[in-house]
Write a structure and sequence with these properties.
The structure holds two protein chains of two kinds. By secondary structure, chain A is an alpha/beta fold. Chain A is built from seven helices and ten strands. The longest helix of chain A is centred in the last third of the chain and has 16 residues, at 170-185. Chain B folds into two domains: 32-72 and 177-326, no CATH class; 85-166, no CATH class. The chains are: A alpha/beta, B alpha+beta. The complex binds adenosine-5'-triphosphate and magnesium ion. Residues 11, 14, 17, 35, 37-43, 86, 195 of chain A line the site of adenosine-5'-triphosphate (ATP).
């Protein structure tokens, strides 16, 4: 589904953050992306989300070479990729319910056509009773779940989650992990960037470890 | 997503689901762009003030232009016979006689004697009220209206007057008209220069104030972009928001300017037939802004609103292309 070949990345004239990174992400797969802070996990996710272009190497997404994807194609690709940002990126002036429905609303879908799905999804992440709360009054863990629900509302083929357990206590982290596993069981590929070793030990999944710009894969 | 709602995650649902809040579910969706914030209010104020000032400038220029053309027409279509008092001269009879002579010439449509009351009013600013004209050797005037298509024989009239009334003189205003035309054209040219500067200042402040108000919205643009909104959609949301905001500010400024014009017209109408009113009238006609002035106000309001919307549109697209072209090597 997604294929990287000898990908290199540097910001401006800085050092190469990623060097000769090659991997594939098959459909319905589940993997952790790990490595010390500053290793380039967020940068790699941004490459997967097409919000960065590689400095060199080949990135192939859903069968298309990244270099041939134009700006006007991006919205279409982004609908097939769900992303949970490290800093959530919720709109503070909208309710939880509206934030989750946003990806559909901006596509021009009528509210009536997605209302049920949004409510269902909010219940699924355990926020059925926080539907009309605004993000500023939510706890870190609640925001995290709103961001996850928003990433899933379009039923993406792959979910990218950046430190989804960074702001929550271990029991909630475990519950979020079960949520991702459940999602994966239903057919979505999942990439979780984390440096939480304890979290990774709970699941027997593929681990992609970034260190010194290189990627090591442990199946 | 229906099939996702399995029961695996019961632990999240410890609390019972509240009944759906009907009033909340029926309310209108929150606008994509937050409706009001400090930057938006500041923008509306800047737009209002700049629109007001532009409209005032426009009004002043149109007033001067209208007056200038009125002066030309009025003064060119009039001549004056002035009769200086002299011993043994029966002023009233002399006035009648001069009027009669003038009326006899082809091209003269009317010869009107400026009566005592009107003369006193003309002199009041200089000589004060309660003036007794009989006590003073004040020259008197006959206003001669001229058919501009067929100018009368001024030379013949001048000679005829001199023969009949030695202290009478005819002024056909030619020198005045020539000077006035030159002055009016200069004034109007200066007015238009001032108006252009004012409009340029308005355009610049509206553009920069809009960009300032937009800068707080980068986070929203990014989120919309990342959830897959098309550039057109995002730009459209901001454009609509700023069109409404800009129109609100511009309309307030324009209405204030229109009210100012109306107040001036009212004031000048009230003061008609007072010495101050006559002077203002002589200079600025009725002191009222014509329909064109009000149309100009409307036009400025619309242009300013459009400019605000267009600036936000361009700013959004520029920011989006900056987001997308961000390859790491250009970052
Ligand atoms: N926009 C940017 N411009 C320049 N350098 C950047 C930019 N973003 C990230 N970097 C650099 O790239 C490196 C990798 O950053 P990245 O955010 O990908 O790390 P990370 O693995 O996600 O770290 P963390 O675990 O702390 O989130 C860091 O050294 C960082 O300073
Ligand atoms: Mg990171």
């Amino acid at each position: 589904m997604i294929r990287f070949e000898n990908v290199g990345l540097r910001y401006g004239m800085g050092p190469e953050i990623l060097r000769d990174v090659s991997f594939t992400i098959p459909q319905r797969s589940f993997q952790f992306l790990s490595g010390p802070s500053g290793a380039g996990k967020t940068s790699l996710l941004r490459l997967l989300f097409l919000s960065l272009k590689p400095t060199r190497g080949l990135v192939n997404v859903f069968g298309r070479d990244r270099a041939t994807i134009t700006r006007s194609d991006l919205p279409m690709f982004r609908r097939r990729i769900g992303i949970v940002f490290q800093d959530f990126r919720l709109l503070d002036h909208m309710t939880t319910y509206e934030n989750v429905g946003l990806p559909l609303r901006v596509r021009g879908r009528s509210e009536a056509s997605y209302k049920g799905d949004v409510i269902e999804l909010l219940k699924w992440v355990g926020l059925g009773d926080r539907m009309h709360a605004m993000p500023p009054v939510l706890s870190g863990g609640e925001k995290q779940r709103v961001a996850i629900a928003r990433a899933l509302i379009e039923q993406p083929e792959i979910l990218l989650a950046d430190e989804p357990t960074g702001n929550v206590d271990p029991p909630l982290a475990r519950r979020l992990l079960r949520l991702f596993i459940e999602l994966n069981r239903l057919g979505t590929a999942v990439v979780i960037a984390t440096h939480d070793i304890a979290l990774m030990e709970q699941v027997d999944a593929r681990r992609m470890i970034l260190a010194d710009g290189r990627l090591h894969i442990h199946d | 997503m229906t099939d996702v709602a399995t029961d695996d995650l019961d632990e999240f649902r410890a609390e019972p689901m509240p009944a759906r809040n009907r009033s909340a579910s029926r309310r209108k969706p929150t606008p994509i762009v937050p409706p009001r914030n400090v930057a938006g209010t500041a923008l509306a104020i800047v737009i209002g003030i700049m629109t007001f000032l532009s409209c005032l400038t426009l009004g002043a220029v149109s007033l001067v232009r209208d007056s200038a053309s009125r002066w030309e027409v009025q003064i060119a279509s009039e001549a004056t016979i002035q009769i200086k008092p002299a011993d043994e001269l029966d002023m009233e009879a002399a006035l009648e006689k001069a009027a009669a002579i003038a009326s006899g010439y082809a091209g003269v449509t009317e010869a009107r004697i400026v009566d005592r009351a009107a003369t006193a009013r003309l002199l009041e600013p200089w000589l004060g009220e309660g003036l007794d004209l009989d006590q003073l050797p004040v020259p008197r005037l006959v206003v001669v209206k001229i058919d501009k298509q067929h100018l009368p024989d001024f030379t013949g009239l001048r000679i005829a007057l001199a023969d009949a009334l030695p202290t009478a003189s005819l002024d056909d205003h030619r020198t005045w008209v020539d000077r006035l035309v030159a002055m009016a054209h200069t004034t109007v040219a200066i007015g238009f220069a001032v108006l252009s500067l004012m409009l340029a200042a308005t355009v610049l402040s509206v553009v920069f104030a809009t960009r300032g108000a937009m800068s707080g919205n980068n986070g929203i643009i990014e989120v919309l972009h990342f959830v897959g909104a098309e550039g057109r959609y995002i730009a459209g949301q901001f454009r609509r928001h700023f069109l409404v905001n800009g129109f609100r500010g511009a309309a307030i400024g324009g209405l204030a300017a229109a009210a100012t014009f109306a107040a001036f017209s009212l004031w000048s109408a009230r003061n008609l037939a007072t010495p101050q009113g006559d002077q203002a009238n002589a200079l600025f006609g009725s002191f009222s802004i014509g329909v064109n002035g009000y149309l100009g106000v409307l036009l400025i309001v619309l242009v300013v609103s459009f400019l605000t919307a267009a600036t936000s549109h361009i700013t959004v697209l520029a920011y989006l292309s900056e987001l997308d072209s961000k390859s790491a090597s250009e970052d």
